[in-house]
């Protein structure tokens, strides 16, 4: 157990590798109740979100979601999040645990009097069921006379009663596997957790922060505070596809210029050629000169290779480029590769 953004969180239950492989082969259950949730309502809600988010919420129909960003005036990523359009003109933002207070203050700085921002993080639990058999398991506990869970499309959300617990079921996740993130009242989290784990015949296992990190890194998902932060922009982080330009929002002028003229540095994936593991903070070199730093690194359980993310000058960002990582004083060759590191065979 470790402290994580003020929460006591499990790094693992049995072991990181065991849990990682279970999610890739069967299913894992993650308690992610540390994540923050904001509800935004009122006639000014849309106006607030149009200015605050880098994605275009006007593209969303009820029951749909987007991966998005809160940016500062320089285009830096204050936080990455998911925005959901719920019924009755309610907008839901799911934000990172360590940024709840920062995000709330930032949203309130737009001063939309006709928008009400409610922090419901303390009363909301969130449990993620992820893996190839997640939908099969979910079907066994799914309310009858409703569309089957496997009919749900990625980045949609539905209201259901799951194992007797009224919930929002979102077809989102942080592992690169099929699955859902289920939100319910905080005092019902135990019932939801136990009800899902009771279906052990599907091979679902409780999974902790360690597996969550190795899983997300294998598929190239960034972690805020490490791979992205207020000094990095979505364009630099190769996340420009989630930004909808051609409209005004906080930081849009900076991103418009970067999209047109390019950037000086870019986040890349690095696969270590030898048997070695890159870790956050390790220098990235070319020709003996430091050109960047590893922002996230691990040994991939799926491909049995050291992998990492890091920012390098644009001229070194092309896949196939061979660089070096200083791993405890020894230079190890690392190839720039196109993300994701791991992709399941069809």
Report what the structure shows:
- This protein is an alpha+beta fold and 346 residues long.
- The protein folds into 2 domains: 2-216, Gyrase A, domain 2 (2-Layer Sandwich), CATH 3.30.1360.120; 264-340, Elongation Factor Tu (Ef-tu), domain 3.
- It has 7 helices and 19 strands.
- It has helices spanning 16-25, 45-52, 100-108, 134-141, 189-197, 209-218, 252-261; strands at residues 2-4, 7-9, 27-31, 36-41, 65-71, 77-86, 90-95, 116-119, 124-130, 157-162, 165-170, 179-185, 204-207, 265-272, 283-286, 289-300, 305-313, 322-327, 330-337.
- The strands form 4 sheets. The protein has a 6-stranded mixed beta sheet with strand order 10-11-12-9-3-13.
- Helix 1 packs across helix 6 (209-218).
- The chain is globular.
- The model has no long low-confidence stretch (mean pLDDT 97).
């Amino acid at each position: 157990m470790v402290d994580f953004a003020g929460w006591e969180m499990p790094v693992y239950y049995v072991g990181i590798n065991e849990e990682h492989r279970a999610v890739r082969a069967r299913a894992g259950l993650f308690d992610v109740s540390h994540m923050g949730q904001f509800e935004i309502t009122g006639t000014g809600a849309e106006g607030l979100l149009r200015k605050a988010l880098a994605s275009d919420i006007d593209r969303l129909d009820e029951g749909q979601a987007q991966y998005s960003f809160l940016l500062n005036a320089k285009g830096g990523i204050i936080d990455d999040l998911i925005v959901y359009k719920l019924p009755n003109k309610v907008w839901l933002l799911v934000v990172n645990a360590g940024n709840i207070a920062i995000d709330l203050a930032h949203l309130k700085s737009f001063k939309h009097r006709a928008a009400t921002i409610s922090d419901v993080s303390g009363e909301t639990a969130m449990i993620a069921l992820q893996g190839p058999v997640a939908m099969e398991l979910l079907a066994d506990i799914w309310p009858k006379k409703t569309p089957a869970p496997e009919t749900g499309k990625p980045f949609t959300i539905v209201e259901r009663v799951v194992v007797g617990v009224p919930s929002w079921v979102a077809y989102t996740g942080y592992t690169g596997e099929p699955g859902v993130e289920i939100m319910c009242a905080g005092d019902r989290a135990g019932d939801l957790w136990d009800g899902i784990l009771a279906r052990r015949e599907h091979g679902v296992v409780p999974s902790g922060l360690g597996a969550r990190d190795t899983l997300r890194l294998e598929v190239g998902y960034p972690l805020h505070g490490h791979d992205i932060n207020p000094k990095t922009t979505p364009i630099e982080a190769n996340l420009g596809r989630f930004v909808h330009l051609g409209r005004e929002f906080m930081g849009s002028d900076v991103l418009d210029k970067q999209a047109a003229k390019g950037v000086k540095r870019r986040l890349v994936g690095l696969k270590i050629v030898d048997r070695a593991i890159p870790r956050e903070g390790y220098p990235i070199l070319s020709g003996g000169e430091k050109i960047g730093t590893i922002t996230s690194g691990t040994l991939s359980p799926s491909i049995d290779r050291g992998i990492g993310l890091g920012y390098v000058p644009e001229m070194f960002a092309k896949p196939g480029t061979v660089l070096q990582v200083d791993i405890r004083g020894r230079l190890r060759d690392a190839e720039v590769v196109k993300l994701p590191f791991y992709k399941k065979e069809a």
